[in-house]
Design brief:
Largest sheet: 8 strands, antiparallel
CATH class of the largest domain: Alpha Beta
Low-confidence stretches: none
CATH superfamily of the largest domain: Aminohydrolase, N-terminal nucleophile (Ntn) domain
Structural class: alpha+beta
Shape: globular
Number of strands: 16
Distance between the termini: 29 Å
Number of helices: 9
């Protein structure tokens, strides 16, 4: 599950965003990245692997800015790599997008954008969002984003910044992936998880389906996808940071139980080729003929993984008709 954070305010965004990212590590991820508006231009730093790798990149090539977004990625479209890490940019390099969820029609959108001359640098579904906004940039950042959203199908949360609107941070929610706006004393935050920002504020606005937050240094304005103003009441979070990391559940185990459907969906999505419908496990290194020769499977596990293996045994035996042993 990808993690999104963003900040706009009076302080340097980079240390804030990096601290917030670390509070999302428990969600699992394979790469991380950050984008900030620095001196009127957009600067992006990304790295495959853990956040510590991104910290090394920033030590060698530091950035500063008071508006920014950051992201931890769990690969669903495209392998873990620097190029596939978020934020993603448009052709001009002026728009940065971080994303949690799925763009269901990204393949068709990508083909249409490529036919218009847009150049893509990643294998992700996210990058189409930046190019769609670029297509309508003459309308202004907010209007171009709304026009892009009208063309996208899926369930997603987005954080977006642009050097054409250096005093704005946009947050978008459509469907399931959560996204909140944190109301701080010296700025505003966005996050896909309350735990990320609790050390900075407990005052939040919860975005609902098909809502956009337009944030400046001193104002938070919420609109619907069709541009209507939405009135929101600030909610104060009573949890401490430890409880917030459990998403309000009393125990981490309960949290993990309720997250199982989404976790399974994310795992399966990573191996399905949307263009052909085929399920691919290239890291296994076996051909179709070699797979057909398998007559027995052994799963070795301990603790909670052993119980997961028992579920796997049932699924494999039911679907593949191959005996499975769990040890």
């Amino acid at each position: 599950m990808c993690g999104i954070v963003g900040y706009i305010g009076q302080r340097d965004a980079v240390p804030i965003l990096m601290d917030c990212l670390k509070r999302l590590e428990y969600r699992g991820y394979d790469s991380a990245g950050i984008g900030v508006i620095q001196g009127g231009g957009l600067e992006i730093r990304r790295s495959e692997g853990k956040i510590v790798n991104l910290e090394r990149v920033l030590q060698k090539d530091p950035v500063r800015g008071q508006v920014g977004v950051a992201h931890t990625r769990w690969a669903t479209h495209g392998k873990p790599s620097d190029d596939n890490a978020h934020p993603h940019r448009d052709c001009s390099g002026s728009i940065a997008v971080v994303h949690n969820g799925i763009i269901e029609n990204h393949f068709a959108l990508k083909k249409a954008l490529q036919a218009e001359g847009h150049r893509f640098e990643s294998e992700t579904d996210t990058e189409v969002v930046a190019h769609l906004i670029e297509r309508g940039v003459a309308l202004g950042f907010e209007s171009a984003t709304r026009k892009a959203l009208a063309q996208i199908k899926g369930a997603f949360a987005l954080g977006i910044i642009s050097q054409t609107a250096p005093e704005q941070l946009l947050a978008v929610r459509n469907g399931g992936p959560p996204l909140i706006v944190g109301v701080g004393k010296d700025g505003f935050f966005i996050a896909s998880d309350i735990a990320a920002i609790l050390d900075y504020t407990r005052e939040v606005l919860v975005l609902e389906n098909k809502e956009i937050a337009i944030l400046s240094r001193d104002e938070a304005r919420i609109i619907s996808f069709d541009g209507r103003a939405v009135q929101k009441t600030v909610t104060r979070i009573p949890w401490d940071a430890a409880l917030a990391e459990k998403n309000g559940h009393r125990y981490f185990m309960l949290k993990e139980i309720y997250e199982q459907p989404r976790t399974i969906e994310d795992t399966i999505r990573d191996v399905v080729n949307e263009e052909t419908g085929e399920v691919c496990f290239p890291e296994v290194g076996l051909t179709r003929s070699e797979l057909k020769q398998i007559t027995r499977i052994s799963l070795i596990a301990c603790g909670t993984s052993w119980h997961a293996a028992l579920v796997g045994k049932y699924v494999v035996e039911a679907l593949c008709r191959i005996p499975v042993e769990v040890d």
